[in-house]
Amino acid sequence: WSNWRGIADLAPGGGYADVYGSVADVPGREDSAFATLPGAHQPHRGLVQVPDGFDRRRRCVLIAPASGSRGVYGAISVAGAWGLPRGCAVAYTDKGAGTDYVDLAAGTGTGADGRAVPLASGEAAFHPARAGAAAARGVAFKHAHSQDNPEADWGRHVRQAAEYALQALDRAFPDDAPFTFDNTRMIAVGISNGGGAVLRAAELEGDWLDAVV
User: Fold this and answer.
1) Which of 46, 92, 93, 101 could form a disulfide with 164 if both were Cys (CB 3.0 to 4.6 A apart)?
2) Distance separating alpha carbons of residues 187 and 208, to the nearest angstrom
3) Contacts for 119 with CB less than 8 Å, ≥ 6 apart
């Protein structure tokens, strides 16, 4: 809800779902995972939404990095609202930022499902001890305190989210697998810092992106 309202004006009279956009119900499945780039201290969140009406004859994936320092759902109104009703899968990444804060005094972080988990469990999305911040006090955020440089890798975060989407499609539709960059249209879309990540992805070598918005 907060990620939708952070970007899209859903108030009556605002024009959303009337002049532009969509709030159509789209049944389907959602997969999420932590992914780590080589050399990084911390993972980034990846999430893939696959509609039941995915068009297997016109395979399409939108890859949407979050804007600003939002979490993995940060681009849901940008990409999901357009792609899911049209039968496209949508892959998201928090691009190494996000809202997975750690309460250092309580020794708790944020788990895969968004609930608080003990840091000692090893299940947190961000563990500041791995970045040398275990003795700090207060609250730690991955974007600020990971000791990674996520901005330098935003393009690779987008690429990794795209690869995760292909794996999710293989699992969702095994009779139509494999899904590859060669047989699936890949469109990267983002605004603000998400748009910056999309442009960084377009700079990567290889013929894997079909369009950038």
Assistant:
1) 46
2) 9
3) 102, 107, 108, 109, 127, 129
